[in-house]
Design a protein that fits this description.
Blueprint (H helix, E strand, L loop, with lengths): L2 H16 L14 H25 L2 E8 L5 H9 L7 E4 L6 H4 L16 E6 L8 H4 L5 H20 L2 E9 L2 H12 L10 H7 L2 H15 L6 E5 L3 H15 L36
Parallel strand pairs: 1-3, 1-4, 2-3, 4-5
Helix pairs in contact: 1-10, 2-10, 3-10
Length: 285
């Protein structure tokens, strides 16, 4: 395949992947699980191709996920990463800053986690905490927020100029759906850990978060690092559309691999299974 034809193929694949998942007239309804899993399987295959391309070409990709509490950031990130290598797709979810980190340049503690060649780093919340939760909950001053919003475009321009592909997603959920999801966490032992005291305090400040989001967008939605908004009331559709869009933002091609065949196993040469008293776990299921 010629270089020109190869480039056209990669561009066409990127266009297909960047298009939202389209359904028939019932596209506004909830996506059925079987349909979702079928589409997700196809997208997982493409994510593996992207992974191998990023490794082969030494690309550096940084994906930022922000959004309201309960908007589905964690589930979307899990859908992206469940079939790829954690050595290539690294998820970064930093805890609250230490006393030492509070004295640093604000973005400083995020810089060590930016991708090196051959990596895709996904931030489950990011430096934009300052423009969102820290601002709304009073963990920083308005002057600090203003300085942050003025500094971020230049910092992100420096990332992009250094060769990082920077993609920023904001997941938006309706107030009714957010209430339903947060209430569901209260009585579910599998999800109760997701409901922090901070979530409870911030729940009532819907419009404070709206104002903070709007100002953040106005200041940091740039040509080199735009924000992409995802309506996530239907979590399954949101996950599929985010993955399809992500695939379209990083043009890639399938890396040629030699045909894989399992080698023959060595002969036993007299080996017999050990009679060591192995401590097997109880069979309960």
């Amino acid at each position: 395949m010629t270089a020109t034809k190869s480039a056209r193929t990669g561009t066409a694949r990127a266009r297909r992947a960047s298009a939202p998942v389209r359904k028939g007239p019932g596209a506004t309804g909830k996506l059925k699980r079987k349909e979702y899993e079928s589409e997700l399987e196809k997208l997982h295959v493409e994510l593996v191709k992207l992974q191998e391309w990023v490794k082969a070409k030494g690309l550096k990709v940084c994906v930022v996920f922000e959004g309201r509490d309960g908007a589905g950031k964690g589930g979307t990130i899990k859908a992206i990463t469940e079939r790829v290598s954690p050595r290539v797709f690294r998820v970064v979810a930093l805890p609250a800053p230490t006393e030492r980190e509070k004295t640093q340049l604000y973005i400083q503690r995020y810089i060590p986690h930016l991708p090196a060649a051959g990596e895709i780093v996904i931030f489950d919340r990011s430096w934009y905490n300052r423009a969102g939760v820290e601002r709304v909950m009073g963990f920083c001053t308005e002057d600090q927020v203003k300085r942050f919003l003025a500094m971020v475009p230049a910092a992100e321009k420096a990332m992009v100029d250094a060769g990082i592909v920077l993609i920023k997603y904001w997941l938006e959920v309706s107030p009714e759906e957010q209430t339903r999801r947060l209430e569901a966490r209260i009585g579910d032992g599998r999800k109760i850990w997701k409901l922090s005291p901070m979530d409870l305090q911030s729940y009532g400040r819907w419009y404070d978060y709206s104002r903070a989001r709007d100002e953040m967008f106005r200041a940091t939605d740039t040509a080199w690092a735009p924000w992409f908004v995802v309506h996530s009331d239907d979590k399954k559709r949101a996950r599929l559309n985010v993955i399809a869009h992500l695939l379209g933002r990083v043009p890639y091609e399938e890396v040629h691999r030699k045909k894989i065949e399992l080698p023959k196993r060595q002969k036993a040469h007299g080996y017999r299974e050990s009679d060591f008293p192995f401590k097997f776990i109880p069979t309960k299921y």
